[in-house]
Amino acid sequence: MIQGIDTSVSTLDALSCLRDAGLAFVVRYYADHGAKRLTLAEARAISKGMDVVVVWESGSPTKPGYFSHAVGVADGRAAFLYGRDTIGQPTGTPIYFAVDYDAGPKATMGVITDYFRGVGEAFAELAGGGTDYEVGVYGSGLVCSTLHDAGLARFTWLAQSSGWAGSKTYDGWNMRQHLQKTVCGITVDPDDARPGYGGFRVS
């Protein structure tokens, strides 16, 4: 199993330690603003020996009221443009989108599905018939399996909360998150990944 971490804080001061610990990847955030947002400098620094993986989480995708088709279009556009124009993320790699709560079947098959349709439409529009980014989802087993099976998310990242719907039995994940801890002086969530999890490097 491939080992990595995700964190909402900059890893710049910890990268040497993280590499020495044998980690293969670091998951960082795309967002509209704020300290948790990945910068190009950090992406380049991580890329010297490890892969970058990215997740979009701007605002609070922690309740059904966050999600709609229109918000999915807006988030998809913002994530795509940030990856392309600021980070230089290679095409063909995924941007994960967070569903950061225990969504039930109604919300999953309703507003959350609508949101991911919007993300996909934004990606397709911005790609203009060319090579696109892939859509990934972070969430429960129910959310991951529903969106993957519907063709709305090619990559799935299983959240650490095993009590969330479908999480104990879902085994189709590309990445799987574990409980928070401190590594190399920063707060992180350890992650397992399978080959093809969506890591990339930038120069």
What report would you give on this structure?
By secondary structure, this protein is of the alpha/beta class. It has five helices and nine strands. An eight-stranded mixed β-barrel has the order 1-2-3-4-5-6-7-9. α3 packs across α4 and α4 packs across α5. The longest helix has 23 residues. The chain is globular. The two termini are 26 Å apart.
What's the topology here?
Layout: E1 2-6, H1 15-20, E2 25-30, H2 40-46, E3 51-56, H3 69-87, E4 94-98, H4 105-127, E5 134-139, H5 141-149, E6 155-158, E7 175-177, E8 181-183, E9 186-193
Parallel strand pairs: 1-2, 2-3, 3-4, 4-5, 5-6, 6-7
Antiparallel strand pairs: 1-9, 7-9, 8-9
Helix pairs in contact: 3-4, 4-5
List keywords for this structure.
8-stranded mixed β-barrel, 9 strands, alpha/beta, 203 residues, 32% helix
One letter per element, helices H and strands E, the order comes to EHEHEHEHEHEEEE
> Regions with pLDDT < 50 over 5+ consecutive residues?
none
Continuous helix count: 5
The largest sheet has its strands arranged as 1-2-3-4-5-6-7-9
Oligomer: single chain
- Summing up helix and strand content along with how strands pair, one would put the structural category as alpha/beta
**What best-fitting shape do the alpha-carbon axes yield?**
globular
First-residue to last-residue Cα separation: 26 Å
Number of strands: 9
**Rg, Å, rounded:** 16 Å
Strand content is 15-25%
The residue-averaged pLDDT reads 96
- Percent of residues in helices: 25-40%
> Largest sheet, described in full?
8 strands, mixed, barrel
